[in-house]
Design goal:
The complex is a heterodimer of chains A (115) and B (115). Chain A has 115 residues and is an all-beta fold. Chain A has no helices and 11 strands. In chain A, a hairpin with a 2-residue loop joins β5 and β6. In chain B, β7 and β8 form a beta hairpin. The chains are: A mainly beta (115), B mainly beta (115). At the A-B interface, β9 and β10 of A face β5 and β6 of B.
Chain lengths: 115, 115
Amino acid sequence: ETGVTQTPRHLVMGMTNKKSLKCEQHLGHNAMYWYKQSAKKPLELMFVYSLEERVENNSVPSRFSPECPNSSHLFLHLHTLQPEDSALYLCASSQDYRGPGNTIYFGEGSWLTVV
Amino acid sequence: AQKVTQAQTEISVVEKEDVTLDCVYETRDTTYYLFWYKQPPSGELVFLIRRNSFDEQNEISGRYSWNFQKSTSSFNFTITASQVVDSAVYFCALTPTSGTYKYIFGTGTRLKVLA
């Protein structure tokens, strides 16, 4: 079983829908992340949380809204998305967001298609 | 500027062949970390190795080996006797001293191992 689990694995939503992606980490880590992976583009860091506090918001449009209720859970709330938002959304965690050699562990991702 | 270049977009080999995936990086930091991740079709990025800039020893783990050369700013990954299960996209990444959660990923190399 992977240390970082994401649900749903696949999601198709209309542009007017509201949906959420869920992530849970079982590694006892303090930091959690959302990344976006689009076809033929480098991985993009979206948000970073450390002990439920957001420490990075990488100029992400407001139609993406993260929520971190505790250090084990992370959500990405989606509303009024655009077709270009279709991508693989990866959740990840690490022991801390700082510190040398900080190793990030990823979940299996949620494949999102916006129609 | 911090940058990771994986010049090989896609490589195809026949099973049991050896294959080397190239990674060249740029950084002005004297302390940094390099990583390799594997992304199978399921989507999860699987952590393979972390190497700090002060440790130039090559590492071997089963059929995997890594060659770190600071003189050429390269951190290459070799799979010996490749297997079909090695088919995946492989990412090289760099974290500089400042902002250690800000992974700089390469664009990945897709490896296809044919039976």
